[in-house]
Amino acid sequence: MNKDYLIYKLSETVKETARIDSELFKCYGVKRGLRNEDHSGVLVGLTNIGDVVGYERLPDGKGLKAIPGKLLYRGIEVSDLVHGVQAENRLGYEETAFLLLSGYLPDREELETFTDLLNEQMVLRHATKMNILQLYGNDIMNILARSVLVLYAFDENADDTSRDNLIRQSVDLIAKFPSIIAYAYHTMNHNKNGGSLHIRIPKPNFSLAENFIYMMKGSKGYTPLDVKVLDLCLILHAEHGGGNNSTFTTRVTSSSGTDTYSSIAAAIGSLKGPLHGGANLQVIDMFTHLRETISDWTDEKEVKEYLMRMLRKEVYDKKGLIYGIGHAVYTVSDPRALLLKEMARSLAKEKGREDEFAFLELIERLGVESFMEFKGNSVNKRVCANVDFYSGFVYDMIGLPREVYTPLFAMSRIAGWVAHRIEELNFDSRRIIRPAYKNVAPATEYKPLDKR
Ligand SMILES: CC(=O)SCCNC(=O)CCNC(=O)[C@H](O)C(C)(C)COP(=O)(O)OP(=O)(O)OC[C@H]1O[C@@H](n2cnc3c(N)ncnc32)[C@H](O)[C@@H]1OP(=O)(O)O
Ligand SMILES: O=C([O-])CC(=O)C(=O)O
């Protein structure tokens, strides 16, 4: 048989054999996407780390009430954390990572030591650097996952899941992600576009945010506000409870007892998806498309009509989605998007890009409005802009290339992932995560090869 025909035939067959009638989910009480009928998530675990709040339960099980979103890291509201460091005119990602890992805010001495430790470990050893230079590829999330898997080979205690070792590995990964991503970008840019191969050594006195921009752009390529905004992005993306797709992936893989590198590589793969962390790229592509397609960026009628056509799958990528809008938990607002939007506004002023900011803000407002008109009654859910809505625009204003947008999410979220991995492996009553699937295929008899 022709091999291409076989692939075609398999694909045609799968059309039928991979199909599950949606009615069957109702019939067997199966929660699609581990979500209840009212859109709330099925409760599958307990955690002390992050808390994501988007609705309140009405008394007597009478449904959910949409409320402004709240995000707590170890019991502390993220907005308080952000305003706290801003009031002291400091940067805050290192403190956030410490908080997530340990469960408490570091004192001055602990913070200084932790920051020194991160800076020390940010410098990649020669073999790791050489490995990144050899990793050919078009996607930094993929290169990052492969680099993380290679770190396994350099770790003499890679499979040890004792608490001490997990903490050691966690700090090491938080420190190494910025260098891996920056070097991977320069390697890819060199291989694909003939760009210069910059291998800058991170500076011991820089914050993690500044070191990343420095490794990407050199010492003359950024302003203090760029560093402040990137640090804010890192604080805001660091953790989002146990249920988000990539953290849940970390928890599922950790529960089997696998090594840290395998578990984190899986989480990177999850985060890359366009419905999760990869949405920051989708938003910027959609924004670029709208900038080019909409003739008057202030014409609400023109913008809204186009967004409605997107929802009807008539234009753009014809997937029926407005990227950066909607969330599995948040309803009225995503607190991270609100904080990021205000930073984006200040940065747009500094960079002279206020027109684009105003256009993005209009897309946000009309995107929500169009969604509610188009889907509102059928899905009975309020939507808002999520954290991915403004992040790509912010990175673009800092002058970071689109290839690192989703990796930047990983660079921050690694703190949340490792905190959840440590929790998953350290409670007494833990069990391997192993839910059930109901088989709905009819029984079929085995036939010998020459009777098929
Ligand atoms: C860091 C993050 O991961 S934040 C999320 C980033 N992702 C995006 O921005 C992509 C666009 N948004 C989405 O796809 C979704 O809102 C998600 C994946 C974030 C959440 O999905 P869910 O929780 O399953 O959404 P929910 O159950 O409330 O959706 C209900 C309906 O609204 C639709 N919907 C949700 N968001 C959108 C959107 N942005 N545009 C169009 N339709 C949408 C869903 O497709 C679903 O339609 P259906 O009932 O016909 O199947
Ligand atoms: O919580 C989610 O499902 C997705 C999200 O916003 C995140 O992981 O930051």
From TrEMBL:
Gene3D superfamilies: Citrate Synthase, domain 1, Cytochrome P450-Terp, domain 2. PANTHER family: CITRATE SYNTHASE, CITRATE SYNTHASE, PEROXISOMAL. Keywords: Acyltransferase, Transferase. This is Citrate synthase. GO terms for biological process: carbohydrate metabolic process; tricarboxylic acid cycle. It catalyses: oxaloacetate + acetyl-CoA + H2O = citrate + CoA + H(+). GO terms for molecular function: citrate synthase activity. The active site is at H327, D388. GO terms for cellular component: cytosol. Signal peptide: none annotated. NCBIfam families: PRK14032.1. It holds the Pfam family Citrate_synt. Belongs to the citrate synthase family. SUPFAM superfamilies: Citrate synthase. It comes from Rikenella microfusus. Pathway: Carbohydrate metabolism; tricarboxylic acid cycle; isocitrate from oxaloacetate: step 1/2.
